[in-house]
Amino acid sequence: MLKTIDKIDFEKRNGIIPVIVQDVKTKDILMLGYANKLALHKTVETGNAHFWSTSHNKLWMKGEESGNIQPVEKILVDCDSDALLYLVNSLKPACHTGDRTCFHNELKQ
Q: Is 79 left (phi over 0), alpha (psi -120 to 50) or beta?
């Protein structure tokens, strides 16, 4: 089923929703970010992953400082319309540490 931006439930979480970023080829989960309507509109408009920084309260494009941009191939919406999955063509590391994915630390039990 196709969804439009106006059908996304941004209000459930005070105007922002979680965005999982996955490599379209390898299926690796690269990172988790957040989007508001502006970030989602910019992602659709430019084709590059944009997010809303909850700590800096501002819009940012992934890779704007590092050069590790994430071209978005497809955006999927979850069944409740309150979370997104960006399928990206990631050629460079996603994590600010230089690792390919932000999920590289295993939890000890």
A: alpha
For residue 69, give its domain range.
Answer: 12-88
* Measured distance CA(101)–CA(104) in Å, rounded: 6
Q: Judge whether 73 and 88 are in contact, CB under 8 Å.
A: yes
User: Which CATH number do you get for residue 72?
Assistant: 3.10.20.810
| pLDDT under 70: residue ranges of the chain | 1
CB contact at 8 A, 29 and 40: no
In a domain, 93, yes or no: no
Looking at residue 28, its pLDDT comes to 95
Say how many domains are in the chain. 1
Nearest CA to 85 out of 36, 41, 24 is that of: 24
pLDDT at 1: 65
**pLDDT at residue 76, rounded to an integer:** 96
Give the pLDDT confidence score for residue 66 in this predicted structure: 86
Domain membership flag for residue 94: no
The answer to whether the pTM exceeds 0.90 is: yes
